[in-house]
Sequence to fold (137 residues):
Amino acid sequence: MKSCFPFVSAVMAILFLSCAGGAGSMTFNNLKYPVALTSSLDIDGKRYDSNNLAPGQKVVIEKQLWSLVYTAWDLNSESDLSDTLNQTIDMHRGVAMRNVRITAAPCGIAYAMPLTWIWFFPSCTQVTIEGEVVQQP
Fold:
C-alpha cells in the first residue's frame, strides 16, 4: 500500500499557505479641506472641538483595491483619494471632515476558497472611509 502522506501534506500546505485579500496603497496628498481622525478640527487657524461644532453629516466612501499573485502585484497602483474626499465635502457644502475612520476588509470574492489556491486568482480588499462633513462653525 502506497503512503498517502505526500498527498495529504501537499493539500495541507495549500490550505494553510493560500492567501486571499487585496493589497494597495492610498494617499491623501491634495486635500483642500482639513480632515481629522478626531472630533477636534483646526479650521483657518482656529481650533474647534466637539463642543464648538454642530453635528456633521455622516458620509461613507467605499473603494476596492485589487491585486494578483497573492497580493504581490498591485493592480490599482497608488490611489490618491484626495479628489474623492474633496468632492464629498463640496457636495455637502462643508468646510472640513472629522471623526474619520478607515477600515479594510476582504471582498466577498476572497471567501471563494478553492479559487484562492490558484496563484493568479485576483484578490480584493474593500476599503471604507467614514466620517462627518462639518459646515461652517
